[in-house]
Amino acid sequence: xxxxxxxxxxxxxxxxxxxxxxxxxxxxxxxxxxxxxxxxxxxxxxxxxxxxxxxxxxxxxxxxxxxxxxxxxxxxxxxxxxxxxxxxxxxxxxxxxxxxxxxxxxxxxxxxxxxxxxxxxxxxxxxxxxxxxxxxxxxxxxxxxxxxxxxxxxxxxxxxxxxxxxxxxxxxxxxxxxxxxxxxxxxxxxxxxxxxxxxxxxxxxxxxxxxxxxxxxxxxxxxxx
Length: 225
Description:
With 225 residues, this protein is an alpha/beta fold. The chain has one domain: TIM Barrel (Alpha-Beta Barrel). Strands 1, 2, 3, 4, 5, 6 and 7 form a seven-stranded mixed β-sheet that branches. Helix 3 crosses helix 4 and helix 4 packs across helix 5.
């Protein structure tokens, strides 16, 4: 693979690292240590998951993540302008019952989640949270199509580019009901308020597919208002 050039800080280039890529064999193995910190303006670690009982953020693979978080955020030592974020959810965790619907439906649950996230980010040195709601495709990053860091497709670019950002990451696949729609809007609004006071980043990636926008989420403007 050709070594990519250092990106201009005039644009947001957001790269996703999938933690399970470290368990692949051979040349498909992609650990944190392989990430070029000069390639992107923002690096997103995916994924943490949602505790269904406490409604808090927790590592998806504690055995690996506990050590990898520190190595991931330490990449900022090689690029003082780099921002590191954690993404919550993903396809697998989103399919485990109705916990994401329960999260957004209650102000108490949302408050517990936001408190746990702010503590989590500060403990591990992350700069923000990336909320990804597919189908809502709320990636908490307005994305253009593209593969991820550590993607198995050898001819694919290793980055996913993002156009507009505030900064966080939450991947819920898929919110559908009116209650989910209202709850998501409330969660983002409350998270934004908590993050701004702490200098943390919140970002939303929103699907461009009309049916998904209609079924699962408000317009991007309303979500981040």
